[in-house]
Specification:
The protein is an alpha/beta fold. It has a single domain, classed as Beta-carbonic Anhydrase, Chain A (3-Layer(aba) Sandwich). About 45% of the residues lie in helices and about 15% in strands. The protein has 8 helices and 5 strands; from the N terminus they run αβαβαβαααααββ. Strands 2-1-3-4-5 form a 5-stranded mixed β-sheet. The longest helix has 23 residues. It starts with a helix and ends with a strand.
Length: about 190
């Protein structure tokens, strides 16, 4: 609650009018960001975005599943559908980051000990995990996996027919970025 008290004391007085405007209308972000739920990165901060500018979707490792309208509960897919069909965002950014704990755990196995939800979730990355040499290790190896997972997420975004159609028609742009926690650099993947 100390953070909230600081917000009310220092941010709210400066931003109160902005929040009042946001409260009077529905959200209209132009960009959706899919990011890892890692506590060390924050898309709003990285992109210096004001409240209401980004529609942020976060999950373990920032993965995007393939399109699978099977009636199940698919949080990331539902958020993507909302962003594209309802909010009509013009850009989807997949924001990965270096030294991702989720990807580190995929490589080194601890997520396999959580079979209820995490195991099936990280299986999304299997297409890029199995071609990698099993003897791989170290930061360069993990960075290669991180980049491959980001590219897989872009591929999987294009399995959603309404994303694919919007991109082909020019109404939607997909971009993939990787943030370095250590240096603060943002690079295209």
């Amino acid at each position: 609650m100390a953070g909230y008290r600081r917000f009310r004391a220092s941010v709210w007085p400066i931003q109160a009018q902005r929040y009042a405007r946001l409260a009077r209308r529905r959200q209209r972000p132009r960009t959706a960001v899919i990011a890892c739920s890692d506590a060390r990165i924050d898309p709003q901060t990285i992109f210096d975005a004001e409240p209401g500018e980004l529609f942020v979707i976060r999950n373990v490792a920032g993965l995007v599943p393939e399109y699978a309208p099977d009636g199940g509960c698919h949080g990331t897919s539902a958020a993507l559908e909302y962003a594209v069909k309802i909010l009509k965002v013009r850009r989807i950014v997949v924001l990965g980051h270096a030294r991702c704990d989720g990807i580190h755990a995929m490589i080194h196995g601890p997520l396999r000990n959580a079979p209820d939800f995490l195991g099936p979730w990280v299986d999304i990355a299997e297409p890029v995990m199995w071609p990698m040499p099993e003897q791989g290790s170290g930061e360069a190896f993990e960075a290669a996996i991180e980049d491959a997972v980001l590219r897989l997420s872009r591929t999987n975004l294009r399995t959603f027919p309404w994303i694919r159609d919007a991109e082909k028609s020019g109404r939607l742009v997909l971009s993939i970025w990787k943030f370095s926690i250590a240096s603060g650099e943002l690079t295209a993947v």
